[in-house]
Amino acid sequence: MRSQTGSNAGHPELTRATRRHANLKSRASRPLVAALVVGVVVTAGVTSAIAAVPSPRAAATVFHACLRNGILSNVGKTPHACPSGSSSVSWDETGPRGATGRRGAPGATGATGATGATGGTGPVGPAGPSSGFYLSASEAHIPGTLGTVASLLLNAGTYVVNADLSLEDISVSNASDLVECQLKLGTQTDSVDAGLLGPTSTPENYAAMALTVAGTIPAVSRAFLECVGAGNTGNTFALTVSITAVQTASLDIES
User: Fold this and answer.
1) For the chain, how big is the Rg over CA atoms in Å?
2) By mean pLDDT, which of 83-87, 126-130, 206-210 is the weakest?
3) pLDDT tens digit string along 70-91?
4) How many Å from the N-terminal Cα to the C-terminal Cα in the chain?
5) CB < 8 Å & 24+ apart, contacts of 125-128
6) Taking Cα atoms as reference points, which of 88, 191, 96, 113 lies closest to residue 146?
């Protein structure tokens, strides 16, 4: 008879059963080994992916957890081991900066603020633009009917115009005269009259006139000085006559 060694040498059926159990145990352990390998790979992959994302703050809190089948467990701030079949993952408390959001609707109008204190007086501003115009004549005859004695051409603008006359009655019959003059600028008019005696009553045969008018003309026009010798002797003259016009940026006329 052949001798058997071992504890199952005398039981062939038990020996075969033991071998089948060992084979089953070996095959059953293979998936577990594969799962562990996969878990290690997943853990390494997740850790590498998270490490590749720069942390916005060096002192940010890091969370640790276990991942299995897409479900997190054992979340905490302290690193820890995960059960078999789970992957160890971690992430920063502060994530990357998100995209700029849409612009919000305008807010309601705020209440009107209180009136501020009155500021100090500012410096005197520069003088505005101005232009001057002048005309003079001598021995201008004063007509027996109203007519132009002198005129001054002006550009469009606002002006103050002055006219001055020095009159003399040279009537050979020693007749007196009454001279009336008007200074016109656009629709504005100033008028003055003066009485003169005959030459034998000197110096009463002399007289002086001054007229002033102010206004605005919209286009190129003239300032007119018109006179008439009401005594109708035709022997009165303006020894000197002048017209001066000064253009201003603005004009305040008091009535």
Assistant:
1) 60
2) 126-130
3) 898 999 889 989 999 899 998 8
4) 158
5) 128/248, 128/249, 128/250
6) 191
The answer to whether 151 and 138 are in contact (CB under 8 A) is: no
Cβ atoms < 10 Å from Cβ of 205: 21
- State how far the Cα of 126 lies from the Cα of 83, in Å rounded to an integer: 89
**Contact between 170 and 208 (Cβ < 8 Å):** no
- Return mean pLDDT, the chain: 79
- C-alpha 181: how far from chain center: 55
Q: How many CB atoms lie within 10 A of CB 251?
A: 13
Separation between Cα atoms, residue 149 and residue 238, nearest integer Å? 9
Closest C-alpha among 173, 230, 229 to residue 198? 173
